[in-house]
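Exercise 7.
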Amino acid sequence: MRMSLEDYAKNSLWPTLVETVHALVMYPHHKSYTREVILHEKPNIKSNELAASLGIPLGEALVILHELKEQVE
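Solution. The predicted structure, written as tokens, is:
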């Protein structure tokens, strides 16, 4: 069974992952590139696809997609 972004965000370790991802030097660039380029090309991209596409850790991809989804809602 595949976990959704919401399932990950409910985990007690989620705040620790977010804090760690926010400390990554390239995080702001990856997030803006995802928002401005990748989501326009593939709006329903999965976290594992984003991670592979950008060559970033899965945790970073999860945080990016979760934050961008929250901005839209």
